[in-house]
Amino acid sequence: MEQIPHGSPDDPNPLRRLSLEQLRRRTSVKWREYPADVLPLWVAEMDVPLAGPVARAVTDAVAIGDTGYPSGTGYAEALASFASDRWGWDTIAVEHTRLVPDVMLGIVEVLKLITDPGDTVVVNCPVYNPFYLFVEHMQRRVVEAPLDRRARIDLTALEEAFRQAVRDGRRAAYLLCSPHNPTGTVHTAAELAAVAALADRHGVRVVADEIHAPVVSRSARFVPYLTVPGGERGFSLMSASKAWNLAGLKAALAIAGPAAAGDLERMPPEVGHGPSHLGVIAHTAAYRDGGAWLDAVLDGLDDNRRLLGELLAKHLPGVRHLPGDGTYLAWLDFRSLGLGDDPSAVLVERARVALHPGPPFGTGGAGHARLNLATSPEVLTEAVRRIADAL
In angstroms, rounded to a whole number, what is the distance separating the alpha carbons of residues 106 and 98? Predict the structure, then answer.
């Protein structure tokens, strides 16, 4: 650990402001799952201080005892303004949104509106492992449509999955991860329009998990699914959770396309009782006033993406990596190194570096591991050095 310098509170890059000593005072799962000699680059938490506007909004609320139940449409209005400024998405109608506890629970509630137990939900594997856990827990069947070798949506595989999903005349949904976790793929407008056309042809409803939407490289462009031709019957789930590191402050929004608004109206009112009032305050402040802080993080992540490519080429040339433009996650292929289906188990034992296991991400996950880039360049460098030395 002594090789990793302490952070500086004055550094313009939020990813370099905290030292490991400061980070290890945190009690979240990232810092408590493994012993103190392990570098945790696994779960999707960022090594950053809280954005100033968010911290002020939460502490101001606590100072006056504003810790009751959430109220109003300020969160949706802040997201609508952010979406207009960042993505040119000017058509979010506040009346077509619903407050939900978090993105995954919001997905569950939307799927309940448009599918029944026994129906099929299509996913693009390898994909965020809770997609499998939550969908199967609600008694829906998962059908996989694997990504292609470039980690992009394979439209042929997707159409075949849609055919399977509706073969018995049942309803079906497609759970789209955009940007894609774990690969970091940012889907293009053309790809999403093709998805919408396929979904319409087969009668499949699209539910887009867009939680990582603000976390996209400066060289890429995020396209909201509900803005593409044919996306009107779809749904989006969004929150400030990933981009501003607010996983512990629960609040998210379900957004219906114009042709899906009637479905969203059927969402039970009690779903809106789950979000935290402090969470709503935090997420609203992030979207409304956290843009400058986010831009600094995005610059730091772009630097880390380049750094990781250089480090792998120099120290771990046997690890295959297709850099993604979205999320702060990197999907690493260790298969040529013979570390078995779960390289992360070997790495945490030999290198004292924790990555997220690949197999739970579904077909295509074996032999892979997911690395969290949202840390300092020094920690990232030390992690790759440790892995290279151990192997």
Answer: 9
pTM (predicted TM-score): 0.96
Asked whether residue 5 carries a pLDDT value surpassing 80, the answer given is: no
Q: Which residues contact 172 (CB under 8 A, 6 or more apart)?
A: 115, 119, 120, 121, 122, 162, 165, 166, 202, 203, 204, 205
**Residue 61 corresponds to which tokens in the numbers above?**
């609320």
Average pLDDT over residues 303-309: 98
Task: Round the CA-based radius of gyration of the chain to a whole number and report it.
Answer: 21
Closest-CA residue to 325 (of 155, 174, 150): 150
- Arithmetic mean of pLDDT over the chain: 97
Q: Residue 50 has what DSSP assignment?
A: P
The pLDDT of residue 8 is 80
Q: Is the peptide bond before 179 cis (omega within 30 degrees of 0)?
A: yes
Strand order in 368-372's β-sheet? Answer: 320-321, 329-333, 368-372, 356-357
Structure tokens at 92: 């979010």
Hey, which residues does 144 pair with through a beta bridge? 123
